[in-house]
Amino acid sequence: MVFNMFRRADPATPETKASATGPVVAYHGGGRVVWSPRDVVSLTKAGFSCNPVGFRSVKLIAEAAAALPMVLQDAERRYDVHPVLDLIRRPNPAQGRAELFEALFGQMLLSGNGYVEAVGGEGGIPLELHVLRSDRMNLVPGADGWPVAYEYAVGGRKHRFDMTGPLPPVLHIKSFHPQDDHYGLSPMQAAATAVDVHNAASRWSKSLLDNAARPSGAIVYRGADGQASLSEDQYSRLQDEMLSYHQGAANAGRPMLLEGGLDWKPMGFSPQDMEFQKTKEAAAREIALAFGVPPMLLGIPGDATYANYHEANRAFYRLTVLPLAARVVAAISHWLSRHAGEVVELRPDLDQVPALAAERDGQWRRVSEATFLTDAEKRALLGLPKLAEDE
């Protein structure tokens, strides 16, 4: 019985090399929708580098949030000069404040995670700040689940940031993720399906132009006595006349003279093609919705949620830009306060945001007219520090 494995197979038995599960796999995979990978690198390429709606949404939010004026204050006063302000104004030799924050906001929108590295300044305020790429960073959890280190991998080499010391060298800011304890969920992941639909529609339009584009019309020949084709000389002469007299900008509007048997038939898009274009526009609106950008600001047709551009821009700042900027700036303030050894608060200066000027004017007017409030209470409501005489 043991040596049965060494016996030759019966030559009369046909040998079949096929997987038993092959037909099942083939049937299961037939006709299935193919989606792009959901990792950070693939999503960034498909949704940012190769999609105009995703690209403009990320740029619009990141640039608007990075351009917000910042103020630094504590419970007593607002600072005009402070080491933290100097660091924020010029975080590293290659970047200014706007460039650093734009990169940080962009990483959060694309991956749901933002990483800032503190360089130098042992035991005090860092000398430089750098934004690290989210796709290169890996969190190393400890026995209790909290991160004990971060590993940054580039070109096969890894650098380990130890997070067990008194001052963490890396700040990790993440978006809310209901199913992940260590990494955030990005708007790009939520918009991934709409990005695939929009990109597929663009590729279909490109292939239509390359291989099956409909001409503006066709010249149909109906010859006498049932003859339905031109002779070779007639066909060549007709082609030469079309190239010479009816193509190009110089011949725009020139009337066409057709001889006997030739008839012009205009051609256009079918209803199916028009519905496909509507699908593409719907996917574009879904991408803008995932990022929180009013479609009106992106020039997407078919959206009339807001009465005018001014209202859409104000909603964009109030509902998208300010919540993101406030959360990120608050995390940076707490992190730098630990390095500085004092509690300071870095916050967006809403009084200098043009899109919110009408709202701020109304708030200042209501607070100033509230006679039942003291000056100290009014300053607290407006987010201003206390005056020296209020101490």
What would you note in describing this structure?
The chain is of the alpha+beta class. Helix content is 42%, strand content 14%. The chain is built from 12 helices and 11 strands. The chain has helices at 22-29, 40-49, 52-66, 83-89, 97-111, 187-190, 192-211, 232-245, 271-291, 309-340, 357-368, 375-381; strands spanning 70-73, 78-79, 113-119, 128-132, 137-141, 147-154, 157-162, 170-174, 217-221, 262-266, 345-348. α3 (52-66) runs parallel beside α9, α3 crosses α10 and α7 (192-211) packs antiparallel against α9 (271-291). The relative contact order is 0.12.
Compact summary:
Helices cover 42% and strands 14% of the residues. With 391 residues, it is an alpha+beta fold.
Throw out a few tags for this protein:
three-stranded antiparallel β-sheet, 11 strands, alpha+beta, 14% strand, single chain, 391 residues, 42% helix, elongated
Q: Which structural class do you get from the secondary structure elements?
A: alpha+beta
Q: Termini separation (Å)?
A: 97 Å
Rg for CA atoms = 32 Å
Counted by DSSP, the helix tally is 12
Count every beta strand, where a strand is a DSSP E run of 2 or more residues. Answer: 11
Name the helicity range: 40-55%
Could you tell me the mean pLDDT? 80
Rough shape?
A: elongated
Low-confidence stretches: 21-31
Strand content: 5-15%
- What strand order characterises the main sheet? 2-1-11
Reported for the largest beta sheet, the result is: 3 strands, antiparallel
H/E series: HHHEEHHEEEEEEHHEHEHHEHH
